[in-house]
Amino acid sequence: MARFHRFYAVLGALVCLTAGCSSKNNSGSSENGATDPLGGKPKPAAIECGSLGAQCLPGGSCGSGVSCLMYTGNLFSSDPGLCAPLHGSAINCAGDSGCSAQTPICMTYTQGTAGTCVSEPELDCVCKDPFGSATVTRCQSTLQSGRACIAQGGKCDQVPCCSGEICKADTTGQAVCQLACTSDSDCTSNCCSRAPNSSIGVCGAAADCCSSQGGACGSAGDHPCCSASTCISFGTDPYACAKICTADSDCGTGCCVPVSNANHSSCAPKEQCGTSSSCTSEVGANCDNINCCSNLACVAPAGVNTFTCQPTCTQRSDCGTNCCVPITDAGYSACLPATSCG
Predict the structure, then answer these.
(1) Cβ–Cβ contacts within 10 Å for residue 81, how many?
(2) Do the beta carbons of residue 93 and residue 71 sit within 8 Å?
(3) CA neighbours closer than 13 Å in the CB half-sphere of residue 51
(4) pLDDT for 335 beyond 50
(5) Which of 204, 194, 203, 205 is nearest to 30 (CA)?
(6) C-alpha triplet 185, 210, 255: angle, nearest 5°
C-alpha cells in the first residue's frame, strides 16, 4: 500500500488524540447552560402587590395599572373576575413562548383557554392572594419551589427554565428554554445537538445533526452525511460518509473513485484505485511493501514509524485493545493500541 495512505493514517490517529474524533458534526450548548441556566442572575425583586390576585366584580376597579380580568372567556358571564396586571391586551398568550422577555410567564387559569403574560414578581403577588392562588393554575408549583419556571419555547432572560430544559440562545439570539437531551433517542427529531466534549445538549431539528466523514449512514436512526460528503460502501464494508472529491489529490488516501448512479466521486481506500492484488491477511504484518487484505488497514499510531496491518472496526468492542480510531477521509476506522485512545 502506498506510503501516502499510511502517512495519512498516522495523521488521523494524531487528530483523534487532539480533537476527540467525534462521529458527529454537532453544534449546541455547553453544559454550563444546563447547570446554571441564568448565569447566576438572582430572582427579580419583589413588588408592592396591592390588589393583584384579588377577586373583583365585572366592570369593577382594581386600582392603578391593574384590571378586573374576566378570565373565564365568557363575555356575558356573571362570574367574578381577577385583578391582574395588563401588558398589552388582556388575554394574550396560550403558553410561555407567546410572552416577552420582560413578562415571560403565561399566567393561565383554571377556566378558559388563554392566559396573561406577567413577570415573576407579579405572579408571586397573584399567588399570595387566596382567590388568585385558587384561580391561577401555576400558583401551586410556584409556592412549592419558591420560584416560577419557564416552559419550553419561553424566554429565560430572568426566570429559570423548568426541569429537563436548558436556557440557550435560538437562531435569533434570544435566550429561550429548549428541551435538554443526552442522546438522539431523547428527541422526537432524533437529533440531540451537543457541543464537543459535552454530555448534555438540546433537541434540535433533524437538519441540525449530520454524520461527519467516516460516520455511519444509510440505516434507520443514522443521520444524513454532512455537507460535501456522501454515503457509500466499498465491498462488504458498512455504509459510511466519505468526502466528495474530483481528483485523487483531494483525498488523504490518494484515491478518488466515481460513485455508481451519481454525478460525483468520493474518497476511497487506496486499494479501490487498482493497487497490487497481492495482500496479506496477517494482523500485525509489516505493510511497507505489501497491501493489507480486506477488513485490514495499513496504519501506525501517532509517533510510531512502523506500519502494520490492523483490523478495521466500527466500535471499540471490535478491537482487542478497545481502541477504534477513525481514519479521516478513508471512510473507515482501524484498531490501534489503547494508548491511541487516551
Answers:
(1) 21
(2) no
(3) 19
(4) yes
(5) 194
(6) 135
Identity (one letter) of the amino acid at 154? G
325 is written with which cell numbers? Answer: 480510531
What confidence tens digit (pLDDT) does each residue in 210-220 have?
Answer: 888 888 898 88
Distance CA 82, CA 32 (A): 40
Mean pLDDT of 251-277: 79
d(CA 199, CA 220): 23
Asked whether the beta carbons of 313 and 335 are under 8 A apart, the reply is: yes
Task: Give, as one character, the DSSP assignment of residue 44.
Answer: P
**Residue of 149 and 76 predicted with greater confidence:** 149
What is the Cα–Cα distance from 272 to 156, expressed in whole angstroms? 54
Band the pLDDT of 13: cuts 50, 70, 90.
very low
Report the distance separating Cα 164 and Cα 32, nearest Å. Answer: 14
pTM above 0.70, yes or no: no
Mean pLDDT of the chain: 77
Contact residues for 250 (Cβ-Cβ < 8 A; gap 6+): 243, 256, 267
Q: How many CB atoms lie within 10 A of CB 315?
A: 11
